[in-house]
Amino acid sequence: xxxxxxxxxxxxxxxxxxxxxxxxxxxxxxxxxxxxxxxxxxxxxxxxxxxxxxxxxxxxxxxxxxxxxxxxxxxxxxxxxxxxxxxxxxxxxxxxxxxxxxxxxxxxxxxxxxxxxxxxxxxxxx
Length: 126
Known about the structure:
Largest sheet: 5 strands, parallel
Number of strands: 5
Shape: globular
Distance between the termini: 10 Å
CATH architecture: 3-Layer(aba) Sandwich
CATH topology: Rossmann fold
CATH class: Alpha Beta
Radius of gyration: 13 Å
């Protein structure tokens, strides 16, 4: 089964761009445009990895990640934050909760490499 990546961002154009640019990874993509939907998608589909924006409507990405980390079914899913916020405090907080942090605009080749590294660490990989 192909790995599933959940992309969480309220900018539809951005999620489409990321899917297009990462299509070569051979993954399936799920998309959520807000934090509540992201939690629902993560619980239902157990993605292999989550790309998570911090600034989201209803529930911010930091809160989403905190909730995911507290639940047994989702706590080990790798999370990469993607955000235009590059303030030190926000970035430090995000890195403490997640596996990585990418500032927008994304360095897509580096992001692709990091995704591959995290997918290879999965217990069900290859």
